[in-house]
Amino acid sequence: MAQIDGTFGGQWGDEGKGKQVDKQLRKQKRDSDELYYQAIVKPQGGANAGHTLFHNGKKFVGHLLPSGMFVPDMNMYIGAHVIVDPVQLWGRDLAEMVADKDGNKKQRQNGEIAILQDDFGIDITSRFYIAENAILQGPYDRIFEGVFEYLKESKNGVAAKVGGTGRGIAPSYANDAARLGLRAGDMLYSDFKERANDFIEEQSNLLFKYYVAICGVPVDRDLVMQRVEDWWKYVWKIKDHLVSIEYEMRTMLGAGKNVFVEGAQAALLDRTWGPYPYVTSSNTLPSVIASSLGVPTSVIGNICLVVKPYVTKVGGGHFPSRMTDAKVEAEFQKAGFEFGSTTGRPRQCGHFDLPLFARALNLTGASQLYISKADICPVDTMYMVESYDTERGYVDGFNRFPHRYSDLINPKLIEFPGWKKEGNDLSLEFYSGFYNYLENFAAQATNNKIKIIGIGTGENVDDCRMFD
Ligand code: IMP
Predict the structure, then answer these.
(1) Taking a C-beta distance cutoff of 8 angstroms, is the pair 349, 320 a contact?
(2) What span, in angstroms and rounded, lies between the C-alpha atoms of 423 and 400?
(3) Residue 347 clears pLDDT 80, i.e. is over it
(4) How far is Cα 343 from Cα 91, in angstroms, rounded to an integer?
(5) Catalytic hit among 5, 22, 51, 81
(6) Is 14 a catalytic residue?
(7) Which of 21, 269, 279, 372 to mutate to test the pocket of ligand 1 (most atoms within 8 A of CB)?
(8) 277 alpha carbon to ligand 1 midpoint, in Å?
(9) Is residue 97 over pLDDT 60?
(10) 65 Cβ partners below 8 Å, 6+ apart?
(11) Which ranges of 394-435 does DSSP label H, i.e. alpha helix?
């Protein structure tokens, strides 16, 4: 019976899911002529995600595309809950600037499909599909994210900011929920231009007549105009890739072909179950497979959760396991190259967090675990948070979780000896200490339903030990 398996983030994002997915998909190509997974699907989120992949030693940073570009013949789908930005995919010579890791603004030249064509000689256009009911991002959405963050900051200070990735994801989901926006498949109809123009005009009125004129929010008019112009230039490209994802999945599964889903963001950033409002705007848990792909939950098979031996977080909100020593945090940032692939921001680093790990296991129902970046151990002693205090007692992952994550204080730490990388593997200290404890904890939290399937030991796709 064909099924849909998937990989999801088990922490605060940036766990290295992309590489694990890439590895899993490439491996099957080597093992057999027939692909076990016929397609990879991105179920939610948008260009806020960022995954760094290495192909023939060259780095590719993907945002909107799922990580199937380097697997020949792999069909790549964008699901119905995804925010599709045509400029991010097809744009060329974009005026937009993004910051590098030092905060310097640098020119981002091209969209993802264009980069793959120009820099890697890979043309995915014949195997790339977009759900008709995917959410079409409007040209104003990134601007609106800036407006809302500006208003929050000017009222309550920097700490009040959600600290989003600036990709306009929240405004796009908000427009969709308010039934104001556009869906990708709208362009199959003759009234698309009129509907899009109406939508853009409404957004422009809201921006300029209310937020700029009345609320006094500063807005770069030239950038807005450029966005609208770019949007119209590239939006038509979507048309050739539209499919009914529900029908495609039904047909594929019916023919005995399996599908792989690559979740974006992570369990702890889930809009409903994360630390609202410091969450992303989509539901990031595996249940999104059903609603985004239009399939029944019964076809969902193995869910793999990816975790690092430490955690990182970007954006606002309480970070309960954050390392208290800035020097140690800097060591992890450097060793793990913990700088946002979408924003360039340094990621805050924290200790592996058992209570939140248990929460992620409970919420996702994962049956597989992959420890990425297991080679990143720049210190002699590694720690895990075993429990937290709250005003109503302690939290260890097995008892009731508080409504607000900010209740979690006074992390109680347990320590493990550090380890070293040895060839393509790790020294014994890793397996006898950290790994062993994690494995037992995961087994206890899931009633023995989870298995560790591999560890990542370096940045290349082959630096990875799979245990089966
Ligand atoms: P947004 O998804 O851009 O609205 O950002 C909301 C929150 O989710 C912020 O704290 C972001 O830093 C975080 N976030 C969004 N996408 C990612 C990701 O791919 N990795 C890590 N954090 C993310």
Answers:
(1) no
(2) 42
(3) yes
(4) 18
(5) 51
(6) yes
(7) 269
(8) 12
(9) no
(10) 42, 76, 78, 89, 112, 113, 124, 128
(11) 428-429
Ligand 1 centre to CA of 430 (Å) is 30
CA pseudo-torsion sign 405, 408, 411, 414: negative
pLDDT in tens, 359-380: 999 999 999 999 999 999 999 9
pLDDT at 108 over 70: no
Contacts of 33 (CB under 8 A, 6+ apart): none
The radius of gyration of the chain from alpha carbons, rounded to an integer in Å, stands at 22
Can you point out the beta strands (E) in 216-279? Answer: 242-243, 258-262
Residue 73 appears among annotated catalytic residues: no
Residue 32 carries which DSSP code?
A: -
The answer to which of 34-43, 138-147, 284-293, 335-344 has the lowest mean pLDDT is 335-344
Q: What is the mean pLDDT of residues 338-355?
A: 90
Q: Which two tokens stand for residue 267?
A: 């369990």
Q: Which two tokens stand for residue 231?
A: 């949007």
Contact 3, 367 (CB under 8 A): no
CA-nearest of 48, 70, 49 to 59 is 70
